[in-house]
UniProtKB/TrEMBL annotation:
Residues 29-385 form the SLC26A/SulP transporter domain. Zn(2+) binds at C590, D592, H651, C654. Its cofactor is Zn(2+). InterPro entries: Carbonic_anhydrase (IPR001765), Carbonic_anhydrase_sf (IPR036874), SLC26A/SulP_dom (IPR011547), SLC26A/SulP_fam (IPR001902). This is Transporter. It comes from Streptomyces bauhiniae.
Amino acid sequence: MSACAPPRTEHSPPTTPPPRRRRFRVESADVSACIAVFLIALPLSLGIALATGAPLQAGLVAAAVGGIVAGRIGGCPLQVSGPAAGLTVVTADLIHQYGWRATCGITVLAGLAQLGLGCLKVARGALAVSPAVVHGMLAGIGITIAVAQVHIVLGGRPDSSVLTNLRALPAQLAHLDPAAVVISALTLTLLLAWPRIPDPVGSRLRKVPAALVAVVGATVTAALTGITLPRVDLPSWRSHALAGLPEGPALGIVAAVLTTTLVCSVQSLLGAVAVDKLAAGRTGPARVGRSDLDRELLGQGAANIVSGALGGLPVAGVAVRSTANVNSGAVSRNSTMLHGGLVVIAALLLVPLLEQIPLASLAALVMAVGIQMVSLNHIRTVTRHREVPVYVATTLGVVCLNVLQGVLLGIAVAVALALHRLTHTRITHEEREGVHHVRVRGQLTFLAVPRLSRALHRVPHGTRAVVELDGSFMDHAAYESLQDWRSSHTARGGSAELKDRRTGVRSAGTPSSAVCRCRPWTPWRNHRCDMPTAAMSKGAADSTGASRPDTHELARGISSFQRNTAPLVREELARLAREGQRPSQLFLTCADSRLVTSMITASGPGDLFVVRNVGNLVPPPGQEHADDSVAAAIEYAVDVLGVRSITVCGHSGCGAMQALLAAEPGAAPTPLRRWLRYGEPSLARLADGRPERPRLAPRPATDTVEELSLANVVQQLAHLRAHESVARALAAGALELHGMYFHVGEARAYLLGGEGAEGDEAEAAVFHEVREDAKEDVREAPEVGSLV
């Protein structure tokens, strides 16, 4: 014992070593990803600063702050933030109107507004903006950027107004600078040609970003040929301007803050949604969770406060850099933060090299970015959804007015278009070859009921009628009116057929006595065929002459699928037939007929590899006379299909669990009893006297059957981990295990907490309810890679 240590008595507690602090580790994938992002961000940050008219150092400040601050605090770990092309027009207008220092102050105020919105948890409200408005805003900004940079490419100086730049373009073409045109043309050529270099050489060369190659190629060419052109001028950091208080009318400053807040927030949130989709489709074991949009808004707000205070441009999520980050294999927010650190190093140590870059090269780079923002994919999307007026109005508003007024104009047109579609329904009636056709074009609401009734009453009694519905919505009043007329018309000897022109679904109004009387437009709810008594009693007789239920029920179901469902899924099933099955999950559940796996998981063809058996049991490996069917399915799913997760799902009222509880020792070994022996460890787990039994949060199990069903899920997960293929995939980090419980009577799903799912120590295994607000965001995000 050390002489300095106090003597230890028998009552002294044993000394324990202090807890070891976790060392900060950076994965190699994050290092390579941060380098790729840095090489893209460096020239683009300078180019965007040039396009706004801000000091060029402001772009580097924004890139560094966006990487470090937003990367550390934000809720989307793989999204890269920095100066964005979508903010170019807003920032340029603010600099022209208020000056640079006041623009920095407005950036700080916009960051504070973002913090407030993040604290109020309204991030998802920003996603309610119509995609046509967002695409139109980006197109308008892209046009404004491209027109302005054309003047620099031709050797001139742009004006702050798009219309002025367009009017001055003929004069600029008459006085162009040949040296600037040559360098700009070289930059554009390298930018377009680099990604198109054929393989196998191109696959290696494309690892270097095209933007970096274009700028470096133009810079080297200018230096070797001795071309005299304006170049990047980075003043000393000692003279760097910091934020100042904006001066001017309060209403104008508020509008400027709101505009900056709107564009920064919407672009960042949409970018986070797009990055989530891109990361979810990435193969490999390394995956990150879904973005916390409210936290992302807080991170963007903090970054804008710091960037504005340090004299940097406004910060937002940038899709091209984020795409490069994900595609380079980044696994955490460390890649984003390291890229910000590299920008800081470059801004301090690479100033002599950066000052060799011609401004014409940066202008050509930013002009290409602006042209790419007018995306043909976006135009096709809004055309398909019949929202071209919204897109055009927003684009022209941004070009001719400003971003905020253009967005407000687009929202107004979107609301007007929605009201027009809701209130303007065209209803026609015509007779062809003795059949009366009533066609409804548009949404069928209560406002159209009077016109619908007039058209339907033109159909004479006792005739055949076809009602064609060409819309996506029908409210209760219209439904009742249509069904009342149909009942009345068929009661008078006529026939009525409803036809949905979008899906091809037909429903006859004069059912025969031998077919199902299920009505159209009926939701899936306690669905039972309402068969006439005569038809049921008319069932085919068996060999003994005794009547039995109608044997054609299966054929009718298949016929209904071929008529109603097959046209909707044929294209997707054809794709799956070509590509083969590639499910991401193995779902092991009970054979109970009340469990519809596709319904409770909202999955479709090709999503789940499903194994069903009595009691959702997983026989442990290595037992004598063990059943290999489940083990074979597990091995095939893990080793051949490469599923990324396995879920064991139990349910309420399970007959297998009831049979386990009611089993009598020494009973005859029937096939069912032999199979249920794999559930006996679950019975032992429940009866071993543990102080905490598995339960549903926040309530305990209601009866012994439910307790055994929950314990069975935990026990079968333990059996699952004993399989060699599962253990190997878990050790490699390529597989996750999940426990699930579905309460049939309540239609509620519960997921097992981490302890029970990760290890065999499930002393207090708790199943937590999956809330409704955990659903996937189906909001259409902009195409990843369309923004810089």
